[in-house]
Amino acid sequence: MHDYEVNVMILDNDGVLRREGLQLPGVVELYAELAKSQIHNVLLSNNSRVTSEGLVKQMHKFGVSDFRQDQAMTSAEGAAAWLRQHPSTERAKDMRVFAVGEGGVHQSLQKAGFTLANDQWNGKSWSSQPTDVVVGFHTNMDYQTTMAPAWNAIRNGARWVHTNGDVSYRNEEGEELPANGEQLAYLATTGKQPAVVIGKPEIG
Q: Which of 14, 46, 155, 164 is the one with CA 20 to 30 A from 178?
């Protein structure tokens, strides 16, 4: 055994601190102990439906009143950061991204300065082919406006970035339900390049 001092802790969110909107036991006590021990910490979430601002609201609601935005990052924000570091075009400003997902995906991409190409699909074809497709968990996805254009864009050569590969998640009642992995499997039928997967445990 080696003696060592912990001064940084990385925490998971979903299934550890919360289950959907349900706070799990010990959250306030955990953060009080981290503060008492002066342990720096960051909260990482594979949930792409929210942004770090949403995680701050969650933690304040849970009773951790001093939680800050610089202590949190979601997989949607991680995907947006990865795109900025690895542009698919000579100039990042020329990238056109088709976003699959809920508010966190769209907000993170727009905040990072990307042009969304969601309005370029007319239900049958593109007026301007996206350079990239970013896919986050979408509980209201449909064939015509979500999966068909994403599949078509990837099939036609768009780079494909997935916010995470989670196969399932648990709702407030503890029931296991399909998550982002189902969309990953669906879009893999394009037969094109595999997705770049961001989020835990992948690093992109």
A: 155
Bridge partners for 196 per DSSP = 161
Reported pTM? 0.89
DSSP string, the chain: -------EEEEE-BTTTEETTEEPTTHHHHHHHHHHTT-EEEEEE--TTS-HHHHHHHHHHHT-TT--GGGEEEHHHHHHHHHHHS-SSSSGGG-EEEEESSHHHHHHHHHTTPEE-GGGB-SSSBSS--SEEEE---TT--IIIIIHHHHHHHHTT-EEEES----EEE-TT--EEE-HHHHHHHHGGG-SSPPEE-SSS---
d(CA 159, CA 135): 11
Q: Which of 89, 164, 77 is nearest to 131 (CA)?
A: 89
Series of mean pLDDT values for 10-residue runs along the chain (204 residues): 70 82 86 91 91 94 93 95 94 93 96 96 95 94 94 96 90 86 92 87 64
Residue 5 pLDDT: 67
Residue 136: name the closest of 172, 178, 114, 106 by CA: 106
